Amino acid sequence: MSLVDRIDALLPQTQCEQCGYHGCRPYAAAIASGEAKINQCPPGGAAGIARLAALLDVPLLPLDPEHGIEKPRTLARIVEADCIGCTKCIQACPVDAIVGASKLMHTVMSDDCTGCELCVPACPVDCIALEPMPLTQVDDPMHADEARTHFQRREARLMREHARREAELAARKAEVAATTTPTNPVLAALARAKAKQQGKPQ
Questions:
Q1: How many whole angstroms separate alpha carbon 201 and alpha carbon 118?
Q2: Cα separation, 163 vs 136, whole angstroms
Q3: pTM of the entire structure?
Q4: In a 10 Å sphere around its CB, with 0-12 CB exposed, 13-18 middle and 19+ buried, how is residue 76 labelled?
Q5: Which of 61, 166, 168, 182 falls 20 to 30 Å from 197 in CA-CA distance?
Q6: Over the stretch 119-132, which tens digit does the pLDDT of each residue have?
Q7: 4Fe-4S domain location, by residue (predicted)?
Q8: Are the C-beta atoms of residues 128 and 89 closer than 8 Å to each other?
């Protein structure tokens, strides 16, 4: 197991980006390379910092307040009566823990929610409440592993969708280019000469 893997295994897998990186794995890589410090993960808190310090044999540091404060982990819950079905929370969720469709009620699958809170600012009608996460879920390595897997699957899906959109755009551009007849300068000159002879403006 690489050092990045070992660091990543100690992170809470909330994928909340409070550390300043796009998910726990990039943060782990940044720690391994010396680019980031071990005290940038509020969900991991003091206990997480202690585990990282022990793994890396470095001094303990207090949580960097620029990245947030340590607080009890939470789960998101959508107040369904107020939901307008805009899908913004679905787009924001890094682990696909929110299900629903446009203009239909959404709901959070609590077993998959990591408590990242990214859905809260995304909601335009403030219909997402935060509730305490069960302690068994907070410290469950299996839950963290599943969150990591869900995040990786979502990232892979988004990459495929982006590649498909780019390919479709390139195909449309190629189709337009193929059907557009380039201007032949000789024919254009003949047309101007003919128009001049007929007394038409250039």
A1: 63
A2: 39
A3: 0.81
A4: buried
A5: 182
A6: 999 999 999 999 99
A7: 1-58
A8: yes
